[in-house]
């Protein structure tokens, strides 16, 4: 690793030295690219010298800086869904050029995967990236007609979900907790509503979503598999308007407008499901609903300074009669300051707060208690981008994050005999600093980066001391793992550290342009993850616990390698790509058989440490323009885990051999299409077929003390049946605008058109009619689901 870090530092110094010499005679044009109608910054818009490969893309705040030698230039500014703009300028000195693009009404109804224009997907150094326009996700058929950004990404290569209604998503053989989800830079610790039916990302309130699956930029850290960067809308700075939608189970409303015209604006959006309102009509005392609120304000102080304040608040409630009542949700807030030090140096400073909490009321007789758990993080960040010259961009920055883990406060209710109990709170600090350089050398572009991360567990906490330093031991007589023997304890105060980790994370990406429409790309990244989601379910649940690395839980680590070929056809009308990847993961945690993870104060006694790997090929072809748009994606991959024993004498998991991860799906095919019949009518559909998820089924049984006990085979040796479904929808726009600022439309959809019963699990029971025989039954969540939604703008 030291050799890799030294090589990257040498490469950075070399790429800095030459552009500094070249930049002496260059000048810089910089500014923002915005939507003409609303003033919203456009992320990823390209500013390019016409007829050349010289150009830049706007950053996450719509800012660009383009260095050129003095002269007369024709500039092209492009963004998907907007009319291209050509500007001819005489460039003699540093200057500011603000650009406004006009939306192209003829392209508004096309489904796009990315917000990139022209051949950006070919020439950009970034690979293994996916983007979806939130406005157009609404055309993709969805469960009960509720548009879902995160589920839409599962139609792209390398992204899967365990099953219908499952929370989270999996990227390239990684588990759901290995995805970093950022909402305006705030970490989202639970990304789902209603136990996984919907995601927390309200498409109405979102401006852009970018998913990094590999070649992850050095500015990101803390997770192994992917980064999903979600940016909220800033609000219309020109005029007040809004939009709303009413569906079968939920309604949503957004309002936005100027506080001070062309200087300050606001956006507020809310959603609420209302299926619970109808349950009392059928004398059902259960409850299941969610609501969330997105809000953002910004103030443009001057050309060099801009402030943003954004927030998110979401809650779920789920109860089952007199058995239990639970609530959970995320709270997030971000304060950001954009500052332009010079035409070449842009900076963003952020203060971020994130909170996820869960509450459970257990109401069954004899064990009535309330359990509250939460994780809180406070983050301070600084990110800088510096334009070194016509061919070189520099990015650097750092962050500091403080964690507080409160795994559980348990209190009795209704006179229950349950004793009050508080699980040990845990505290930690994570820091990171990074530097990356992108440099163009003829047809080759290189992006080299280095990130240094550190993680410190701190007190106060009293820690158990185990015999032989083993929190888990293997009992060969009964053939199972047991808790280690506690021989003492040690205490740490708030000023003392329990563990400290420090790691280098190199990043490297290369792009070789082979023609005006094709390129070969390769990337490598090392990532460390210091937080672990402890779960023994196939998909994440609200009750799963986040725990920090510490005495017996080491930080997870991954090395990922990727290579791909990218080709555009027919004047960039079609895009095609093939990518291969390999991931080598270490220090993964898995639970022992029979693990008790709920309200466990010594979670290390239920876990074993192992390794993992993920590898595969991803294919994508999409059509960007015309009345028929869409894509076909196919992924061939494997996701595997291996957990050896603690010593030579114990078996680990699966006898210490490789086994399929819970979410392994070797084959995954998605076909998505949208056809614009005329200005009013459009049709959309998607077809999905994937391998069934792995499962552990009984291979025999035996009798003990009069009880029939099933005997299970190796972990995840079997599979559920193949999953497939077809969804369709039709959208019809109103003939006339009902309000001054907008129109209205009806969306009719059918999820799972041919009523496929896709299994989510298989269970076994004894055949009552034929004693001694066993029957297998499958459970499934969704059959055919029609929906209708009415959307309107005002």
Describe the structure.
The N and C termini lie far apart (57 Å). The protein has a 22-stranded antiparallel beta barrel. The protein is mainly beta and 794 residues long. The longest helix has 21 residues, at 2-22. Residues 13-23 and 108-115 have low confidence and may be disordered.
What's the structural blueprint in terms of helices and strands?
Layout: H1 2-22, E1 27-35, E2 46-49, E3 55-57, E4 63-68, E5 71-78, E6 85-91, E7 95-96, E8 99-101, H2 120-123, E9 129-132, H3 134-137, H4 149-153, E10 159-160, E11 170-171, E12 179-183, E13 186-187, E14 192-193, E15 198-199, E16 206-212, E17 226-232, E18 241-246, E19 250-260, E20 264-273, E21 287-302, E22 305-320, E23 324-340, E24 345-362, E25 369-387, E26 392-412, E27 421-422, E28 426-441, E29 444-458, E30 461-466, E31 472-475, E32 480-483, E33 486-492, E34 497-515, E35 518-529, E36 531-534, E37 545-548, E38 556-569, E39 574-591, E40 607-623, E41 628-642, E42 659-660, E43 667-676, E44 681-690, E45 694-695, E46 698-704, E47 707-712, E48 718-719, E49 723-733, E50 744-751, E51 759-766, E52 774-780, E53 785-793
Parallel strand pairs: 1-7, 1-8, 12-17
Antiparallel strand pairs: 1-4, 2-3, 2-5, 5-6, 9-16, 10-11, 12-13, 14-15, 16-17, 18-19, 18-53, 19-20, 20-21, 21-22, 22-23, 23-24, 24-25, 25-26, 26-27, 26-28, 28-29, 29-34, 30-33, 31-32, 34-35, 35-38, 36-37, 38-39, 39-40, 40-41, 41-42, 41-43, 43-44, 44-49, 45-48, 46-47, 49-50, 50-53, 51-52
